[in-house]
């Protein structure tokens, strides 16, 4: 018997984030499903290069498929729309037509996190004022301008800098990304265009049961 959905990601961080999000079906506004999240061993560029063709192996195991990768590091030289069209056309060629969705996140999946700053503050045990001061120092050092304008263009850099300042390490672990995503408001995350498109597709495929309780945040 086929499972409902396979989510194919580009790395362990994205895998952890998706494993945190998918069980929160009420917050997404969909029904509960049976899913797996897997990651491509060659990261964003490998997933873009041969991900659609690789998914042929899973066609008899899942009803639907989602591919998620970062625009930065993907190796695609076109704009994001053309890159997404490229992926979708190749998914259609391996018989996933109408049962697949590709999401290329600009610039990377950490962009989602910054749409709910409270969950970031809670993880690092700081308040919003301290967070802004820390990141503004980094913006000034790198001449990135104002934090509120730059955070969507440099989301991973900002997370890494916070990790260095508060935790004395250069990068968060996948399980730490999962902790942030588990605490985040997915309603706020939908202010991200890429996350909103993902949620819309999930709701279309797996509509919430009628009479179910109200969605969580």
Question: Which SSEs are present, and which pair or pack?
Answer:
Layout: E1 3-9, H1 12-21, H2 25-28, E2 35-39, H3 43-54, E3 62-70, H4 80-96, E4 100-105, H5 110-113, H6 117-124, H7 128-142, H8 147-150, H9 155-167, H10 174-183, H11 186-189, H12 193-205
Parallel strand pairs: 1-2, 1-3, 3-4
Helix pairs in contact: 1-10, 3-4, 6-10, 7-9
Task: List descriptors.
217 residues, alpha/beta, four-stranded parallel sheet, 12 helices, globular
**Number of continuous helical runs:** 12
The share of residues in helices is 40-55%
Secondary-structure class: alpha/beta
| Cα shape | globular
* Unreliable stretches covering 5 or more consecutive residues: 211-215
Describe this structure as you would to a colleague.
- α4 (80-96) links the parallel β3 and β4 (100-105).
- α3 packs parallel to α4 (80-96).
- A four-stranded parallel β-sheet has the order 2-1-3-4, sandwiched between helices.
- Helices cover 53% and strands 12% of the residues.
- With 217 residues, it is an alpha/beta fold.
What's this model, at a glance?
The chain is α/β, with parallel strands linked by helices. Helix content is 53%, strand content 12%. It has helices at residues 12-21, 25-28, 43-54, 80-96, 110-113, 117-124, 128-142, 147-150, 155-167, 174-183, 186-189, 193-205; strands at 3-9, 35-39, 62-70, 100-105.
């Amino acid at each position: 018997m086929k499972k409902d959905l396979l989510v194919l990601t580009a790395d362990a961080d994205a895998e952890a984030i998706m494993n945190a999000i998918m069980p929160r079906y009420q917050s997404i506004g969909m029904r509960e499903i049976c899913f797996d999240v897997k990651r491509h061993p060659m990261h964003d560029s490998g997933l873009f290069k041969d991900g659609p063709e690789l998914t042929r192996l899973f066609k008899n195991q899942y009803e639907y498929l989602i591919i998620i990768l970062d625009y930065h590091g993907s190796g695609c030289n076109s704009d994001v729309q053309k890159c997404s069209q490229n992926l979708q056309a190749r998914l259609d060629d391996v018989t996933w037509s109408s049962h697949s969705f590709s999401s290329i996140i600009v610039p990377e999946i950490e962009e989602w996190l910054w749409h709910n700053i409270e969950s970031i503050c809670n993880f690092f045990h700081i308040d919003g004022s301290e967070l802004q001061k820390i990141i503004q120092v980094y913006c000034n050092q790198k001449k990135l301008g104002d934090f509120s304008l730059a955070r969507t263009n440099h989301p991973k850099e900002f997370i890494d800098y916070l990790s260095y300042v508060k935790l004395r390490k250069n990068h968060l672990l996948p399980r730490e990304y999962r902790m942030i995503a588990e605490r985040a408001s997915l309603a706020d995350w939908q202010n991200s265009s890429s996350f909103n498109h993902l949620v819309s597709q999930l709701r279309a495929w797996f509509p919430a049961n009628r009479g179910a309780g109200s969605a969580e945040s």
